[in-house]
Amino acid sequence: KNFSKKINNKMTQKALWVALSSKFKADKIKILEDDNFNFKKTKDFKIFSEKFLNSGKSLLMVLTKPSTDLLRASANLSKIKIVSPSQLSLLDVLSFDSIVIASEALKSFK
Question: Is there a contact between 74 and 100 (Cβ–Cβ < 8 Å)?
Answer without folding.
Answer: no
